[in-house]
Each structure stands twice: as C-alpha cells, then as structure tokens.
Specification:
8-stranded mixed β-sheet; 32% helix; globular; 15 helices; Alkaline Phosphatase, subunit A; two-stranded antiparallel ribbon; 448 residues
Length: 448
C-alpha cells in the first residue's frame, strides 16, 4: 500500500534522515523509483479509469438482475421484475432508479466462475483462482497504463481493510500495490511531516542528490540516470494539494453529497436490524478520485452471503427481507455514480463495473440461497462501451447460461481493452516463468 511514512527514529524535526531519503517505504522501494517504474509503463497515455464495485458474498442474480417470475415457487422468490428504458432489460422492482438509466448500463447475465464454492475474491480481482497467485487487475493497469503523476494510480477503498491477498501485485512488484486510505497512516501522510517546510524539503533533496551521485558511480546498470527527475516528481506529489484534496469530500456541494447518501446509511444483512453500514460516501469518493487522475478505484459494498440457515441463526426471516433494505441503497449508489459521471462528461473515459464472486442457488433453502458459481452477472457502465443492452440469456431457472457463457477473464479482458492493454502479453513470475496477463481474456465483443 502506497503510504508516506514518518520517522521511527526522529531528529529534532521528527524526520529520520534515512527514511527521508527514501521518500516513502514501499517494501524497500523509494518513491522516486516507484515513479520511474510508473513512467516506464507509459504515463503519457490518455487518462482512462475504472471503478470496480465488488458485492462480496455472492449477490443473488435471480433476485436482482435475472428474475424468473414463471419459475416454480421453490425458485422464483418474492420480488417482481420491472421494465426499464431498454426492452428485455428487466430488473428487480426494488431498483427503480437503475430502470431510469438502463440505456447507460450494460448487463451481462451469463458470467460463470471457476473458483469452488467459497468466498475467494481472487477470481474477481485477478481472473484466476486463488491458488494461481496472479496480480490484481489494478496492479496490471498501474504497470501497463500508469496514471496521473500527482496521485496514486491504484486506490483500494476496501472498508474491511483486508484486501492484501486478492489485491496483491504479486510479481509485478510493490510499485503497483494499491494505496489504501484506510491504512494506519493513509491520506494523512500524503503531506509534509510536521515541522518540514518546502524549503527544508528541497534542502534535503540536495543532500539526497549528493548521496545518489556516489551510488550512481557504483551503479553499473545505470539505474539512477534520471534520479533528479524522479526525485523532483516524488517531492511534487507530496507537496501538492491534488492528491489530498481528491480524498476530501467536504469539497463537494451539499446537493451532490445528498444524491449519493451519507455515511450513516445502513441495511439489514441477515437479521432484522439496520445494523450493517452501506458505504454511500465511497461511491462519491470514487468519482472524485478518478476525476483527479486515479486510474483504478476498487471498493466493496454490502454483504451478500444470505444463506437460509445463517439468516435463521441471526434471528432474521428470509433473504428478501434483507434485500429489501440493501437493494435500494445499491440502486441509489449506482444511479448517483453513473449519472454524475455522465453529467461531468466522463462516461467515455471512466468505466464502472459491479459484480461479485458468484451468484446464488436458484433453489431456495430455509428462506435463503446458497453459493452458485455456475451463474452470476456483471453490470457495466461508461468506458465508451455499447450500453443499453443485455448480453447473454440464462435458462428458465437462472441456473446456467442458455447461450453466450462468459467468464471472469472475459470481464477483466473488457477492462484491459478499455486501457489498451493486451491480455496476451506476458510477464515473468517469481520463478522467471512467463505468464499471460489473462489466458482467455477476450473482451466481451457485444460491449466493445
């Protein structure tokens, strides 16, 4: 995680000399070196971005985006479908705001998953099962597309703060790890340490330059040829306001913030009480970040693991009771984000993706549904995609694809297509063996 650390062994100005010269601890990688690696990835390309919202736990496709009103009682559930602006694009009655903007959305109803029926999010973030240990798509984009030099390329807004495994850069290197504002230091350290002025910073830059001259003399690989350029850019990042202000929601007008909701929004997960937080403000923060130049923003929203036995054990009633409290929040958040991006003219540059690690069983069990990797969905918006359509059709009980089966790698391949990244290019893993970014990463042709 990209964090600008303060000193552990301070001088009177609270800055440790060695830590200062590193300008940020990244597993031993200094910020100037980070910027050098990012530049090698091609930062001069036109800015594009992706906001990926993960509905962790397995969102119930059959109760949200693929309702089957003609199925037996043991399958169809309590909700009714409603028509949208797009023929054939029917969705749940508790998501009326998305119905109003269906022309700005693209729904893929036939996404299948390889990972066994466990809550492993690696397939969502990497396209591979957990055991493959592949880099997250955000790290891939950071390396091969880059981003704005004054903000992190890749930001994780994961409310759980436990994304280390499935958002790992793996063999792409620490330079492409996600920055997490929820870390122990977070956004607070995107600033100069206490007692450090800009003038003193540049004085110490001179000291760093002298020491690096000695290192350059010994560096036969000539890695430090451009040290002055990248040190200057590192200093520019932590002395500028752009990164910090991107995280400051107080900069938004009240009218805009109200559209997204507030930090106190809650839903009922498996019980009857509205006790689970919904990250309304993170949807707004995601928009601010991509507008400021961040290339990848990821977040998790809600809890969707509604097994019947878990609901009963938690004093709840059934899956539909809980979804009645969560779906309107999801609906409002998606509507606010997509509408806001269009109003700001960002719909071609910024892609939005909403999905989870699998769907849920067509057959109802104790008032709930269990894990179902044979069918799930992916909801797209923006990114210059061909929206206002549904891709793929499931069978009569939303159990498996009737046609056009697709996979997680096709979803991520569509993202890579947006960034101009060839998923068939290779990168060496830790053992030196070349690995494809994706093995079957053809983008979804109907969308691109």
């Amino acid at each position: 995680m990209l964090t600008f650390w303060g000193a552990k062994r301070p001088f009177c100005d609270k800055i440790n000399r060695r830590d200062f010269l590193q300008l940020g601890a990244l597993g031993g990688l200094s910020l100037p070196n980070l910027l050098r690696l990012q530049a090698a990835a091609g930062e001069t390309k036109k800015h594009r971005a992706i906001i990926m919202i993960c509905l962790a736990g397995g969102p119930s496709h059959i109760d949200m985006y693929d309702l089957k009103p003609g199925a037996p009682d043991s399958v169809r559930g309590e909700f009714k479908p409603i028509q949208t602006k797009v023929p054939g694009f029917d969705i749940c009655e508790h998501m009326p705001l998305q119905a109003l903007i269906a022309d700005k959305l693209a729904l893929v109803r036939t996404v299948q998953f390889v990972e066994p029926m466990q809550h492993e999010l690696e397939e969502v973030y990497t396209g591979f099962v957990k055991s493959a240990k592949r880099p997250s798509f955000g790290s891939v984009i950071s390396r091969y597309h880059g981003g704005h030099p004054k903000v992190p390329h890749y930001v994780c807004l994961d409310y759980a703060g436990d994304s280390t495994a499935y958002e790992s850069p793996q063999y792409l290197g620490a330079a492409h790890r996600a920055f997490s504002p929820s870390g122990s230091e977070g956004v607070r350290n995107l600033s100069l340490p206490r007692g450090m002025t800009t003038q003193r910073l540049h004085d110490r830059k001179g000291l760093a330059s002298q020491l690096d001259t000695l290192r350059r003399d010994m560096d036969q690989a000539n890695e430090f040829t451009a040290i002055d350029t990248y040190t200057a850019r590192a200093i520019d990042m932590i002395t500028s306001q752009q990164a910090r202000e991107a995280f400051d929601l107080s900069k938004e007008p009240d009218k805009v913030r109200q559209r997204y909701g507030n930090k106190d929004d809650k839903f009922a997960y498996v019980g009857k009480q509205l006790d689970s937080p919904w990250p309304s403000e993170q949807f707004l923060l995601a928009r601010r970040l991509v507008e400021a130049g961040v290339s990848v923003v990821t977040m998790r929203a809600g809890s969707w693991d509604q097994h019947g036995n878990v609901i009963q054990a938690g004093g709840g009633t059934n899956i539909w009771y809980n979804l009645r409290t969560a779906l309107p929040l999801l609906d409002r958040s998606i509507h606010a984000l997509v509408t806001d991006l269009h109003e700001r003219g960002l719909e071609k540059e910024v892609m939005v993706l909403v999905w989870g690690e699998f769907g849920r069983t067509p057959r109802i069990s104790q008032g709930g549904r269990d894990h179902w990797p044979d069918l799930g969905y992916a909801l797209f918006a923006g990114g210059g995609l061909k929206t206002g359509q549904v891709v793929g059709e499931s069978d009569s009980q939303a159990a498996r694809p009737k046609n056009r089966p697709l996979h997680a790698q096709n979803v991520l391949g569509t993202i890579y297509h947006h960034f101009g990244i060839n998923p068939k290019q290779t990168v060496n893993d830790f053992s030196g063996r070349p690995q494809y970014l994706l093995e079957d990463g053809d983008p979804i042709s109907e969308l691109v």
